[in-house]
Amino acid sequence: MSAIGSETGVTPPSLCVVVVNWNGREVLQDCLRSLGDSGYPGLRVLLVDNASQDTSVAFVRRHFPQVEVLVCAENLRWAGGNNAALARLAQEGWPQDQVLLLNNDTIVPAGSLQRLTVALAAEPRAWAATPRILYAGDPARIWYDGGLVGTRSGWIRHQGIRQLAGRRTTANRFVEYGTGCALLLSRRALRQIGLLDTAYHFYGEDADYSLRIRAAGGQILHVPRSLVLHKVSASLGEASPSKVYLRSRSHWRLLRRHWPAARWPLLLVAQAVYFAGHATWHLWHGRPSTALALCRGVLDEWRGRPVPGAMLDSAAGRMVT
Known about the structure:
Distance between the termini: 29 Å
Strand content: 15-25%
Oligomer: single chain
Radius of gyration: 19 Å
Shape: globular
């Protein structure tokens, strides 16, 4: 694979960056400033505000007048907010070559956008691309360096998480899924795959979209020399029953949608081990309500029950984690 993305003299594709926000006033400044300082020619930034109750919209309009603001009447969550932006771009006839879905709690170093977009444009097999994502509080360590999808086990995980970036390869490569924290989509992907699936509620939408791309014949290119710093969200807490419930529910939805029946005998065994191990871990740490939420998420998704309003209220401000 060609190691492209940063050569001088290469004109980058036209780009629109979509940032979904809900009461994120405290993180928006760093994110939007980094985009403004990126030096990317003709960059379009579209902020989707999910009916924030803080001063996010007024702040952006005052301090970042070059940023377009799309205000939603309600909290559409991550997938719905991005879909609102994608619907607008579709109505405009996809005026930009590529669209980057970017978390509001990120910082994009100078040059990273160019490396990412040029790499995607130069690889005809790729319909999407991802950067290397580092912990903003510890930028020597990796949060995402590619995504793995266990075709038999159903285990989905980040590559390189918490490893030192200096010990990882910087060669471009294809990966199995891209995180929604920073997911670059080509016009071809947007036209053929369409919108994100809002039925996941929280978590899993990015893996679902990635698997849909691959099922349609596209690939996802990982570009480690393109960097993004991520202020990893702790809004729900790793042991929050709401977070665990929504994660387990969305994970089960993903399995039911994308794993063929022939793989289910082995898949069920692997998933039983996976969920039993997680439930035991929470019980060991004195969190029976979290262990119960883990199992309840799977059962509710299997039975088709609606997501409890209390769970959604607890997770209303979720940023991709």
